[in-house]
Amino acid sequence: MKRFARLLAILNAGVLLGTAGSPPSPSPSEQEIGLHAGRGYFDGNARQVVYYDHVVVTNAQGRLACERLTINLPPAGAADSHPTNAVAETNLDIIFVDSKGQTNHLTADRGTYDYSVVNAVTNETFTFSGHATNDSPQAVFSGEPLVWDNIRNRFDFGRHVDMQIKVKSNSGGTNASPFNILK
Description:
The chain is mainly β. The chain has one helix at residues 2-20; strands at 34-36, 39-43, 48-59, 62-72, 85-97, 103-118, 121-129, 133-135, 139-144, 146-149, 154-156, 159-165. The protein has one domain (2-182): Sandwich (lipopolysaccharide transport protein A fold). The chain contains 1 helix and 12 strands. Strands 1, 2, 3, 4, 5, 6, 7, 8, 9, 10, 11 and 12 form a 12-stranded antiparallel β-sheet that branches. A hairpin with a 3-residue loop joins strand 8 (133-135) and strand 9. The chain is globular, with a radius of gyration of 18 Å. The two termini are 28 Å apart.
């Protein structure tokens, strides 16, 4: 998820600012991203970029697809270039590689990214709602909402949690006793 936060920041610094003027020179920490949408627009007064109609965003760590992606930019002249909020709506489908190099697949009706710095404390969360499900190499889980806190490195499963743990046996199969997870 931390890498996906970087994807949003890179979107802001590269593609989004390129919409409003000439893009900044890339720094060594930036990476290439791709964005495809049927339509989109930038509203300079609202400091908002909206992409819609089969939106697909890609980078080396993953792919985000949805029908509408709305990104709220920080105020003009702000020291921090992070988007303050991004909302991906309708048929949200995210495939991402986590910090362990494992592929995860998350689906939901809606995903919201919130970023703020208040009194020198950074808050950065991803909230997924509407049939939110994450399929990781260890487990498949769903909840309402699923909330990833990027600063605290914590996943909150919300209400109505449903989880299927993928347990591997010593022989490499996945039909081992579920009590092995307690060892």
